[in-house]
What we know:
Chain A is an alpha+beta fold.
Amino acid sequence: MAELSLQHLDKIYDNNVQAVYDxxxxxxxxxxxxxxxxxxxxxxxxxxxxxxxxxxSRGHLLLDGRDITQKPAKDRDxxxxxxxxxxxxxxxxYENMAFSLTLRKExxxxxxxxVLAAAEILDLTSQLNKKPAQLSGGQRQRVAxxxxxxxxxxxxxxDEPLSNLDAKLRGATRREILLLxxxxxxxxxxxxxxxxxxxxxxxxxxxMSMGHVQQIGTPIELYDKPNNQxxxxxxGLPPMNFLDVRxxxxxxRGAGYxxxxxxxxxxxxxxxxxxxxxxxxxxxxxxxxxxxxxEVHSNENLGMNTLIHGSLAGRITITAKLRGWKDYRNGDxxxxxxxxxxxxxxxxxxxxxxxxx
Amino acid sequence: xxDERIVTDRMRYTKNTASSRLALLAILFNVLFFVxxxxxxxxxxxxxxxxxxxxxxNLVFMLAAFLASEGVKNYKRSFSWVLIVxxxxxxxxxxxxxxxxxxxxxxxxxxxxxxxxxxxxxxxxDNLVMGDWQFIRVCVYLIASALCLFxxxxxxxxxxxxxxxxxxxxxxxxx
Lengths: 357, 175
């Protein structure tokens, strides 16, 4: 049982730079929360505040209802896995994994059982006598995780653990972390700048920008119903296309093109009649066979899909992910349609939802 | 897995630090021995070739004991026999220089050397080359060094046998 509550957390450094603003979140027992955002958005700082590696300037941190804001890192019963593994090079895998327990002067037989159990979970049994230098990046990261597992902490904290791995290994290790989470059922906080990791791993995602929480929700919520333009642009690959349009007579009028609206969409935009808004369209929500003219600039075949970069009505750069294998050439004209649309207020950048909010 | 089996199983992933440290302790006692024996007037009454041989033996001993300590650290059974031989030699050394020095009087260095070389140990005069206190000390150092080596060898033999049996058992189980 490990429920974590972050209440109005602020981080202000000595030079008055504020890295985190009013961070609020309740993490349920066994939940995997992913903090995602671009570099410098405050996600790692938040994680370090939870770990006790950074002081909390304002706010409270509660673990199972107990205030641990002022507790030192060693007394918080949390284990952190770092990007650079932080393994001891002169120790074997076994010794690395046993080290924290040895420091706590736990019984050697108990340590042995815990290390073997963790090694079994992480498929490291055959590597226990090796030194970190003899292991691959993925194996090293698994050792770092094993070192956390043996401690049996209440909360696992991961600070960009896959950033040092190549793409293939990253995918494999990501799946291992997911399996590990299912197996241990532990509460985990995971920091990454990679939105693919966030979408595939998280029970809930916290999207951050400039120290502010932009949205907290399930992966599908962030993908389907982004709160604002930042979240819409950050979640999803390739990123969402944003087009400046005006709502006029139940249509969206852009520079040289018009977009029809469904009845539901008209209802949503009723309050914006005659106003400028931002239309967001994900590349995968664009299909060929419509009425909107796109001039192809480049054509990337991905196997199942074809990625097209082009210009809409000869002016606005747009990316479309079309189904199937296409062989468009530079300069070809394609007619496309938007299957699904997102609307954003141009001034606030917030999403326009049902009822014009 | 019961506790005894866990202790044995642990050896698969941990070093035999007990034996290794005992072997290093034996080296330390040997250092104390040769620091003590070359002290004061003793050197004057040594026959030059014995001093040289003693120094060379000390170097060889330390090297061999160190290598053996690394060997037993990894549960290598053969290094236990090396440690036992080194331990026996430490005990034999008591009867070479310390006993002779303890029974030799100071006087003409050449005469003393002749006495040493001729194994003349029955000289009982007041002014001994090695006094009682120094003699006891060097003997204690050599005995302590030998005991450490024997114990290191014994621990390693015991542990390496247990580990070998455990590994064989695991192999059988896997097969």
